[in-house]
Amino acid sequence: MALHERLVLRTALRLLGRLEDAQDASQEVFLRLFRHLGAVTEAALEAWLYRTTVNVCYDLMRKRPRLAEPGPEPAVQAVAGAELEQAAKRRLLEQGMKRLSPQERAALVLCTIEGLSTAEAAAAMGVAEGTVRSHLSLARKRLKEYVGRLWR
Prior knowledge:
- By secondary structure, the protein is an all-alpha fold.
- It folds into two domains: 1-65; 73-152, Arc Repressor Mutant, subunit A.
- The protein has eight helices and no strands.
- Helix 1 (5-16) packs parallel to helix 3 (45-63) and helix 3 crosses helix 7 (118-125).
- The chain is globular, with a radius of gyration of 17 Å.
């Protein structure tokens, strides 16, 4: 658990966007691992953890309501200085990621942020590689539109 808890928590946090939810998801992932300890080989452990983390996060996303799309926050509109601008852009991207579908968000997090190949992400998501590429393309397009609309 100590070797992989950061991977699970980091992935869950990026998928869910809230630390409390990510901690709940991480706990559930490791409970499932404990229950299936004999069935998971050490060679396949990381892939199993990604797959289970994605599935647990999907379950949590289904349970909570989708966010209404807010307008830009005042901090985003009144940015001054390079450091504040970077923080505002990061926050805007986080807001945009919350508006993606769970599958688009998972594809973006696994491939772009976690650095998994499309084959690895497909295995983690339980879909075909082409589906991952499609979700990734849609996610990037939607994020670009969202950021472009609000960042002037």
